[in-house]
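Render Protein kinase domain-containing protein in 3D.
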Amino acid sequence: MGCFFSKTTPGAGRETAPPSRPSQPSGEGGGVGRCWSRGGGKEEKRRRKGEIAVAVAAAMGKPKPGHALRAQLGWPEWLSAAAGDAIRGWTPRTANSFEKIDKIGQGTYSNVYKARDLMSGRIVALKKVRFDNLEADSVKFMAREILVLRSLDHPNVIKLEGLVTSRMSTSLYLVFTYMEHDLAGLVAAPGIKFTESQIKCYMKQLLLGLEHCHNQGVLHRDIKGSNLLIDNEGVLKIADFGLAAFYDPTNGQPMTSRVVTLWYRPPELLLGATFYGVGVDLWSAGCILAEMLAGKPILPGRTEVEQLHKIFKLCGSPSEEYWKKSKLPHATIFKPQQPYKRCIAEKFSDFPPSALSLVETLLSVDPDERGNATAALNSEFFTTKPYACEPSSLPKFPPSKELDVKLREEETRRKRSSSRRGNVGDDKKRTQAHDQGIRAFPAPEANAELRPNINRRRRMPRPNTKSKSEKFPPPHQDGSIGFPLNTSRKDPVSFGVPDTSVASFRVKPSSPGISHSGFLGNPIAARRRTAGKAAVA
């Protein structure tokens, strides 16, 4: 049985607390319909999944009030038991009223599809999330994302329109408004160069969306180009709240520092901060502004140590007063031996003066000096000519997302490799010239939305040793298990060398007499040489 939930009353998306009484099932299918899956499936497979769902629900204890009614409406046991508050007040609809059109995004635990609502004819985006073994903590993380989305209602924040699920499936589909582009895809698209007025338009919408999120007590914690969606009318919407969290500035609670994609992660998180606020999103917004002006990412680090190195070289190292007041867990580890001078003005001397001033503010090493979204909106950048243009006046671009750019680059590489001619030297020159024109994106291990990267240091002991899935802490323990404090890092990290990739974490050798450093040669040739030496001996 598939189901889709929708708002029962106008303005429900603005409610911080969902209504206490769910509405009756709508007449649109009554919540009963064909399960939307890859195939029909066998009865035995369905029975086993049903048993797993019942076991998970039983492990969670006594059902909460309203659980039975939600089950009657079509919600599966595993979702109703773990995410009852998130789905309260919504009515289901059949899943077979959607038709997949194309895959438009992908991640480790989720895929995004373009689809058609067969009842309204509208085009929507479906985000499919998979839950391995129906682990309750993983479901709770998704429930938090749903609760966050339901608490937000703003033109520049993506709108959650419903959920599709099945009693016999461990997958969940989130239904969103379809957007034709994302900012990363547009910035990387060949031939697209934003004017100052257009950049102001996009930045204004981003800051308005962040202002609303922060006023509602929500930190996004993963602002980057691919999470800023744009439709054909030029409207920008902040999307992907999978790492978002509620926060109270008057009553700070610890949160994890393992958030925000590496290139857009502020220095305090790289230094292990667990108490932070709106400054983390504003730093990311500053990176986005500078990226649009420069036409490329400004801090493309490959590791956390290298990322801090790049930040300190551009933005200057923190003052002694900041080191003392912040009391960051890894201050003694990552503090540079010699202070760096701030050089943003010299590095970006071709930026318009008002834009440079805002970049300077948003990329302050001290988060207290970044201000807030409202202050940024009132800055000289938006109050001087050329003013931000209207979204409707923006050019109509062909559909372009980060995934499209990656696919184009892969196709270009395939064509280049299949048509290689001439000598090796010429081929190397062509390869280097081509690679210089390719738009860089964060490596998969640097993306905050990929859960292995975020959660590999948030694992909890597994009660079932046979399970291959990871245990994640519940949302209320979000910050208590961030960067591993017991990591062996006795020696200070030197930042006195040029930009080179260095490992973020020290690896203990498997045996004291073997070195794993140095050039990574051909392992097959190495084995042959070893075998040859053994034969001679």
